[in-house]
Specification:
Elements (H helix, E strand, L loop, with lengths): L1 H14 L16 H34 L18 H5 L2 H12 L4 H18 L3 H7 L4 H15 L5 H7 L3 H13 L17 H8 L2 H4 L6 H15 L1
Helix pairs in contact: 7-9, 7-12, 10-12
């Protein structure tokens, strides 16, 4: 009897179906291939989420960086130090406005760049205070005399050139030399030689406080000097 039971158990064990499902496979997956597919989909979704998060962060950083710039490059306000008419068609000014806008500069940063450029230009030019000092105590009078003469002698298209020359003490002296050598005789309306003072006399008058001292300045006296130069260089 015991032998028969052993035979029956062996027969049942032989006939029982053998499962291909690995023991490590979680119940929610039907097969290893099913689990691999699910994990692949999960990785794809995680990758998409990472890209979206990165794009969101970049967008927020860009918005913060450009938050203080105007709506367009043309909306930057022109600083008071610049003539609006000159800035309108100035290629350098337009370039700076576009550069500032593309880099998200604020109005303050935009103006700071212009101020630095102006300071650099000024540093390259002559020291006007030092040049004025080199002309002596009557520097203002000498400069004014040269200006009056140049306005009468040179056509308008040369004004800028003359002003550039007159920025230095040597330039003023050169113009004074030209003034002296351009002296000529003048004739009055009745054909008689006009009474006029020499340049030396006028220069002596310019040293009088009534001419150069703002406190003691005499309008009639100043006019007499100016008319004297006008007769010499007209």
């Amino acid at each position: 009897m015991e032998q028969a039971d052993n035979v029956e158990v062996a027969t049942l064990a032989t006939e029982a179906p053998v499962s291909d499902r690995p023991e490590w496979l979680p119940e929610k997956f039907k097969s290893p291939e099913d689990m691999a597919s699910s994990y692949s989909e999960l990785e794809s979704k995680l990758g998409q989420g990472e890209t979206a998060l990165r794009d969101k962060i970049l967008s927020e950083l860009e918005a913060e960086a450009y938050s203080n710039r105007p709506a367009s490059a043309g909306d930057y306000a022109i600083p008071e130090m610049i003539d609006p008419e000159l800035a309108t068609d100035n290629e350098l000014f337009q370039w700076w406005a576009n550069h500032a806008y593309e880099n998200g500069y604020s109005q303050e940063e935009f103006e700071n760049g212009i101020e630095q450029y102006a300071a650099a230009l000024e540093a390259m030019g002559p020291d006007l205070d030092a040049e004025r000092k080199a002309l002596g105590d009557n520097a203002d009078a000498r400069i004014e005399a040269v200006e009056l003469w140049s306005q009468k002698f040179f056509p308008e298209e040369f004004t800028e050139v003359v002003m550039t020359i007159g920025q230095t003490a040597k330039g003023i002296e050169a113009l004074e030399f030209l003034m002296q050598n351009m002296q000529g005789s003048s004739v009055s309306r009745d054909g008689q030689p006009a009474m006029r003072m020499s340049e030396d006399e006028l220069r002596t008058m310019m040293q009088d406080p009534r001419y150069w001292n703002p406190v003691k300045r005499d309008a009639a006296y100043v006019k007499k000097v100016e008319e004297g130069f006008s007769q010499i260089y007209r």
